[in-house]
Amino acid sequence: KDNLGELISRVKSSRADLGIAFDGDADRVIFIDERGEFIFGDKTFALCVKNKLAGTNGKGNAVVTTIATSRTVEDIAKENGAKIVYTKVGEPYLAETMAFSSSIIMGGEEVGGVIWPELHFGKDGLSTAAKICEYVSESPLSTLIKQLPQYFNSKTKIECSSEQKSKIIAEISSKAKADNSAKKITTIDGVRDR
What we know:
Blueprint: H1 5-14, E1 19-22, E2 29-32, E3 38-39, H2 41-53, E4 62-66, H3 71-79, E5 83-87, H4 91-99, E6 104-109, E7 113-115, H5 125-136, H6 141-146, H7 162-178, E8 185-186, E9 192-193
Helix pairs in contact: 2-3, 2-5
């Protein structure tokens, strides 16, 4: 968001329908809604999943995402009868999972990367931008985003050696499992209560 101040201002001043920002190789895309609000990448991915699953019963379909993505995508998939599959963080893990499963209809991660398997197994910011523009032709982006489940994602990195990492993950996982409020712990690429 800090790097998109000029785009946010331009969207507001020109009363644009949305702003679009790509990373250097355009595999990731971030949007600014018509009010100048920054839209996190997992919301973009969830919106794409919601639209792709709309009108289907989702049965037999799956969506793949990384463990770093918020529960928004999981909720949207489940609401539409689709299964969610989690991988380690990184496009190669998503692509590999998609390549070996005919039931996965879409993949993506929280940084604004969406994979459209009917095109290819790489994140594709240009196709995602085109799809979001299509959705915005029907309803303002802020309205579409408000219709999604709202979660907040907090990440913390702790610098440590490989040996320490395994020990820390085991300790955190053990404590989380002992906590009755932790429903389901996964240790794919860290510790997460899903």
